[in-house]
Amino acid sequence: MKALRLILSTIISLTFLALFLEGFHSSLPAAILAGGLSFLGGMLMFSPDRKTKETKKTQLKPPKNRKKVIPAPGDDEFVCEGVTRGELKRIVREGKEQVNRIEETGLKIMNHTVRVDVLEICSIANDIFDNFLKDPRDIKESRRFLLYYLDTTERIVSKYYELSNTSYLSDEAKKTLKDVESTLVLIKDSFRNHLKKLTENDVLDLEAEIRVLQNTIKREGI
Fold first, then answer.
1. Does 198 fall in a domain?
2. 143 is a domain residue
3. Which residue ranges run through the membrane (predicted)?
4. How many domains does the chain have?
5. Domain ranges, residue 125
6. Would you say residue 72 lies in a domain?
7. 1, 8, 94, 183: least buried by Cβ within 10 Å?
8. pTM: predicted TM-score of the whole model, two decimal places
9. Which residues lie closer than 8 Å to 12 by C-beta, 6 or more apart?
10. Per-residue pLDDT of the chain (222 residues; tens, 9 = 90+)
């Protein structure tokens, strides 16, 4: 590597020497000075240390447009058994982002009935995530909704949109579209029933608290 630096620097130096003598008709001392300076410049330019420093400097630059989630005070506190405040916010944030993706795809579907079904599914899903914020304990009852139903719904809606935009559909493809349309109705009913179950749990919890309060009042004679 060092020999290559010398060769390249020498070539640059001789080039400048000839340029000053023949091209600019400079004096020999001036040409020699220009050649010497160009030789030093070439040695610095091809220095491996310089390139290494520039490479390291480039590598140390932080990537652009990367959003860093900074934990807020209290995020490590448990809002219910097994779930911290930070985890609750992450579950709701990521879940609503997924629902937004499903909604964006659903809005592009030409079939009006299917489009309405997809938007209703998204509305119910958002209500479920809003319910998590009110009662984080419902997350435990919603593992299947979070880990299976939502992902499956996103894949089905995306595939339906792609297939429905195909210029030519075989009989088998048309049958598949019909199956998806009926499946979306089942998903909508499933989401609605799940939200109803979570709401009923909240009502039962409230009723239990009321009974405890009433018994306490009676016992203490307040």
1. yes
2. yes
3. 30-47
4. 1
5. 78-220
6. no
7. 1
8. 0.61
9. 38, 39, 41, 42
10. 555 555 655 665 566 555 555 554 556 665 565 556 555 655 555 555 544 444 444 444 554 554 566 777 788 898 888 899 999 999 999 999 999 999 999 999 999 999 999 999 999 999 999 999 999 999 988 988 888 999 999 999 999 999 999 888 899 989 999 999 999 999 999 999 999 988 886 555 555 566 665 666 567 765
